Amino acid sequence: MVAGVKTGTVLLGFVLLLGCAPGEPPPIRVTIIGVDGATWRVIDPLLAQGALPNLAELLERGVRAPLRSRAPLVSPPVWTTIATGKLRAEHGITEFHTKGALVSSRDRRVPALWNLLSRAGRRVAVIGWWATYPAEHVDGVIISERALKTREADIKALFRRRLQPSQATALAYPPETLELLAAHLGDAPPLEGVDEKGKTIETMRVEDAAVTHALLALRAQGRPFDLEMILLRGVDPVSHFFWKYLEPDDPAYAEAERPSPEEVAQFANVIPDHYRWVDGLIAKLVADDPSRVFVILSDHGFEAGQQRFHTGTILSGTHKTEAAQDGVLVLAGGPIRRGAALDQSAIEDVTPTVLHLLGLEVARDFAGRVLEDAIDDDWAASHPIAWIDAYPGPAGDLPEAREPSVPAVDERLREELRALGYIE
After folding, report:
1. Which residues, including other chains, have CB under 8 Å from residue 266's CB and lie 6 or more apart?
2. What phi and psi, each to the nearest 5 degrees, are found at residue 326?
3. For 248-256, which contacts have Cβ atoms below 8 Å and span 24 or more sequence positions?
4. pLDDT per residue over 178-211, tens digit each?
5. Can you count the helices (H) and strands (E) in the chain?
6. N or C: which end of the chain has fewer CB within 10 A?
7. E strand or H helix at 65, and its extent?
8. Hey, what domains does the chain have and what are their CATH numbers?
């Protein structure tokens, strides 16, 4: 009798923890993992080799598709379309900078997923997403993309109040969450034989790991997040710098541009190794909470070819033509179909699909659609799409006064973008 009472108490506690009544299924929670620049062109050969076991497991119980992007293939506007369901002409983010200043959440004219969820009383965690600085006030956490450029000295200055309160709140909301991130922004693991450009690659590997571990630390603090959104940016610069070693014989390269056999032997695995690194990070997030719906996606693909940027920088991997316009999309868990493939999806479809999975209304003025073919028929039949004409503004909850920038943080981000040739 005592054992039965104890078992019933445990089950009741588990139901209450999930936030649903007895007999009801647990609520759907969604994790979006953005992998900047990821392409099936690299992923499929690695899957065939068994080199991405964690992504392969998600594909076995989920859906894959090419994710059609929108040219020009510039990260901030594309990631903002993914987060808002609106195209750049409407959401207002068009480049890495506006009027000489780095792109800001203040430049976005429409609400993003984290705003819509917060207004509905749902918890969110957003880490490293483009154009989230200054961090908006949400029900949950936002750690902006510029916070990834903080280092130990910046954090010490912040909590000794050498930074102004508005600067602290701008980097992350609530500002004390910066400590979770900073704990993982330590020294980068060395990459053998890499020149100066390799410093950026090492930094990005560390930042991808820091984003992942910060989310794990946030999960451990208490109530679960209904929506998690993180952006792992390392694949993009790795691909820009090292693509010619992956496909040295591609006809896009003139004879004089092709690497030597010795260089190919030294650097051919740099891009595949970073994909394997990301696969390991995804594994940690899935293992920590396998009940969630996982959405893995990228903003565009990649291709061989010399790309000359504003500064005169020439890189061997690019994403400027039709060949690189498709990114990747993987959905797995919950009501997602198992082992299916869609012919096409688009970046503007992500927001309406995520809102529908979370039980929120889908706006008729979104540029995209709910990816109904990715959803199990039985679940879809019992969960018809709820429609609303449009979600009202404002875009987000920000203080009226503009906060001063954090010079060391801004300059680190500018240096990275200059190295990639994105800004002058």
Report:
1. 193, 245
2. -95, 125
3. 250/304, 250/305, 252/303, 252/304, 252/305, 252/306, 253/304, 253/305, 253/306, 253/316
4. 877 777 776 445 555 555 556 667 777 888 999 9
5. 16, 16
6. N
7. strand 62-68
8. 33-419 (3.40.720.10)
The C-alpha atoms of residue 140 and residue 172 are separated, in whole angstroms, by: 11
Q: CB neighbours of 81 closer than 8 A, spacing ≥ 6?
A: 70, 87, 88, 91, 347, 348, 367
Residue 167 has which token pair?
Answer: 């600067």
Quote the pLDDT of residue 185: 74
Between 277 and 307, the higher pLDDT residue: 277
Identify the band that residue 277 occupies on the pLDDT scale cut at 50, 70 and 90: very high
Write down the residue that tokens 């693909």 correspond to: 301
CB 399 within 8 A of CB 166: yes
Q: Compute CA 401 distance to the chain's CA centroid, rounded to the nearest angstrom.
A: 28
pLDDT in tens, 333-359: 999 999 999 999 999 999 999 999 999
pTM strictly above 0.90? no
Q: How far apart are CA 326 and CA 117, in angstroms?
A: 28
Separation CA 76–CA 95 (nearest Å):
6
Helix (H, G, I), strand (E, B) or coil at 307: strand
**Residue bearing tokens 């109904």:** 372
CA atoms of 203 and 186, how far apart (whole Å): 9
What is residue 182's predicted lDDT score, i.e. its pLDDT?
A: 73
Cα–Cα distance list, 348 to 299, 365, 368 (Å): 11, 11, 5
- Listing DSSP states for 120-186 in one string gives TT--EEEES-TT-PSPPP-SEEEE-GGGGG--HHHHHHHHTT-S-HHHHHHHEESGGGHHHHHTT--
Residue 97 CA to residue 103 CA, distance in Å, equals 4
| Interior/surface letters 165-185, b for 16+ CB within 10 angstroms, e for the rest | eebbbbbbbebebbebbbebb
pLDDT over 60 (residue 157): no
Total residue count of the chain as it appears in this document: 424
Give CA–CA dist 39/297, Å, rounded: 9
Whether 325 shows a pLDDT value over 90: the answer reads yes
